[in-house]
Amino acid sequence: MSGAAATGNRKLVFAVLLCTLLTAAFLYFFYFLPKANMGPEQPIAFSHRLHAGVKNIQCQFCHPFVGRSTHPGIPPVEKCLDCHNYIIARHPQILKLQHYFDTRTPMPWVKANYLPEHVLFNHQRHIRHGIACKQCHGEIKAMDRIHGRRFKMGFCVKCHREKKANLDCWLACHR
Amino acid sequence: MKRRTFLKMAGVGSISFAFGCSPPDIHLFSQDRASSDMVPGKATWYASTCRQCPAGCGVLAKNREGRVIKLEGNPLHPVNQGALCQRGQAALQDVYHPDRLTTPLLRQKDGWRPVSFSRAEAILKTRARRAAEKGPDRVRMLTGTVGNSMMSLATQTLQNLQSAPPVVYEPYAYESLKAANEKVFNVNGLIAYRMEKADVLVSFGADFLETWLSPVEYARKFKAMHALCGDSKNIFYHVSPYLGLTGANADHWLACRPGTEAIIALGLVRQALDIGKGHHLPRNFYKFLDRTTAAYTQDRVLQDSGIALSLYEKLIIQLMGARRPLVLGTGTGACDLNGQQINLAANLLNLLLDPQLRLLDFKHRYRVSMASGGSEILKFFSSLDGDGVDLMLLNGVNPAFNLPPGSGVTEALKNQDVFVVSFSNFMDETAVLADLVFPVRLPLESWDEYGGRQPIVSTLQPAMGSLNKAPHLGDVLLHAGFEKNRPAKNYKQYLVSQLASTNGVVDETRWVQLLQRGGKFSFDLKVNRGSHKFKPEKLAPVLGRGTTPLPSSPVFIAAPSIRFFDGRDANKPWLCEIPDPLSRVAWQTPLLVHPRTAGQKGICQGDIVRIRSEAGSLEAPVYVSKLTAPDALAMAIGQGHTAYGRYAAGTGINPIGLLSSRTEPGAGIHLSIGLVVIEKTGRRMKLAHTDGSRIQHGRAYALRASLKQLQQTGPPPRNGLSMHDFPLTLPLPEGYDPQRDFYPPHPHETYRWGMVVDLDRCIGCGACAAACYAENNIGIVGVERVLEGREMAWLSIERFQPPGSMEQVTFLPMLCQHCDNAPCESVCPVYASHHSKEGVNNQIYNRCIGSRFCAQNCPYKVRRFNWFDWQWPEPMNLQLNPNVTVRSKGVMEKCSFCIQRIKTVHDTAKNEQRKIRDGEVTPACVQTCPTGALVFGNLADPASRVRKLVDDPRAYQVMGYLNTKPAVIYLKKVVVDT
Question: What ipTM does the predicted assembly reach?
Answer without folding.
Answer: 0.85
